[in-house]
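pasting for the record
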Amino acid sequence: MCKADDDSSASGSGSKPADTGSGESGDKPTCTVKKLDPQPPPGSMYWEGKSSKDGAVYERTCKNGPDGAPVKSTFVADTPPGELPVDPAVVAQQAVAKMKLVGPEIASPRATGKYIVGVPMWMWVNKSPTTYGPNTTTATAGNVTVTATAEVSKIVWRMGDGSTVTCNGPGTRYTASYGRQKSPTCGHSYTRTSAAQTRAKYAVAAIATWKVDWQVNGGGVTGQLTETRQSQTQVGIGELQVVR
């Protein structure tokens, strides 16, 4: 709702209703503006030679007819009157929220596993759209639609013994054929047991950094966001006992 005279302050162009009276003397007519839904087809007279690339068609209704009767007119505007332009970065954040990204799905080390001091531990995670990516979705606000794609760029492992390991991928899955060699992509070796820790286990955290690339559909505006998500597990580390 707004107070307006026959000349709208909204961006865009359009026809003005004829001055046929305006209720009480000295008062400007009360007007409402709404976006036409559905929008007129391409080439319609309502577009006034423009197209959807220029914005949208809105209908203005002002009570400035005889005895305050409503008079309607249409105009094309790139932004709805009274609204601020939509920030694509904000729409990108809305797209990220729709993805429901979570922390890494830790496959190894397992909380129920048995690990030994000095023996290389292989760390890896399972990949899915919500735990690793890629994950693509869109969000729309006003006349702005953004497509965003998110994928984990690195995982930082905090091993609980004061060590931090940064892995630039999901890690390599271990098989028995590797024996006791170190992981080629993501691993760690404990130098002491976890006997002195709470519940005799190290608290391990895997913090994933998500890189989110976004772009406005039909436009040249692009950007990038960074998100982090975290998962935890516990690891018991023992040592081999030599029996003589």
